[in-house]
Fold Probable peptidoglycan glycosyltransferase FtsW.
Amino acid sequence: MLFKKILRSYDYSLVITYFVLCFFGLVMIYSASMVWAASSSKFNYDATYFYDKQQTNIIVGAIAFFVFAIVPYKVFQLKPLQMLMVIGSFALLAFVLFTGNVVNNAQSWFTVGTRALQPAELAKLSVILFTAFVYNNKLKSGNIQSFGNGVLPPIFYLVLICFLIFLQPDVGTAFIIFSIGLCMILASGVGGKNIIKLVGVAVVGIGIMILGIIMSGKDILTDERVGRFIGYLEPFENVEDDGYHLVQSLYAIGSGGLSGKGLGESIQKMGYLPEAHTDFIMAIISEELGIFGVFIVVVGLGYIIFRGLTIAVRCRDPFGTLIAVGVSAMFGIQSFINLGGMSGLIPITGVTLPFISYGGSSMIVMSAALGLLVNISMFTKYDHHYRPKKSYDQQEQERQTA
């Protein structure tokens, strides 16, 4: 009986959305990568190379999705598990700075067999869970309004994580993680005065971070990164250099029009838009499938964000609420940065589009995060349907007893 109630409480709309986006992304990765994989001097692989690898990524991601959807999310309130995640995040991010592989001028990857692992992606989920864990405990103890004891502890962790990622350098991922942390802080109920204090601490922290980067000798403002801003501001005046990727992306979007050229009929993927199956896959979707393809992706990702925020509002457990806010922020911020970059709205940062772009680390982490959201949704729905809401007096009595 309990098992049936739990099954009925799952948010199957999120499960369906997840698999629709993964399948759609897999099809588009094959379409966008087959010419580049087979003809590029950089790869010279079989035409199905990236398609086959993404199939494996989706299978591993689906396993992570179901594990996080089934195992109760409150298990992450265990302090030993939290400490393991925190220490593991620091260790991996520090280790990759010394022994990691350099890809696109960023030392962000480990090679594990034939696969690549990006620790910065794992740090996204670690930051969400640790921030929710700390602020949930502060809410229970009544220390949430204390700036020193209640507000600062997760901030130190957040800043250090972003600092290590910034050193790789991976500015886009560092910005995403920092933004996720800020969204969770605002949702935690720390109060207006503490937020003002945080702004001051943030200014000092950024100054220290910049000083530390200068002293480390890392060249953050590389020619490539400066070129991204130049290409963003004046793409058609730098069409053969810094503005090349954006111009080719805009050509793809513009030539697709409303109806698109048809699946597999893209011109830009024929070597004009390099590695289109990664950061610029949405440009190929626009070219081949027009507004219909764009609609599938935007509505799917938008629905995940909307449901995440709805779950956060409905959840009675602060820990679950904060996790839902963090996961929703992660999907929203990362999607905006990817879509903004490929359309010329913001500078290009090299951030993947969740479930659509090629990538193993991103697929696994995003799948686990969505599974976590489905898990919170299930417990929230179960509480609302099968457990009576406790009165304010009952809640106060339980707090005093605890």
Q: What stands out?
A: Residues 18-70+222-387 form one domain.
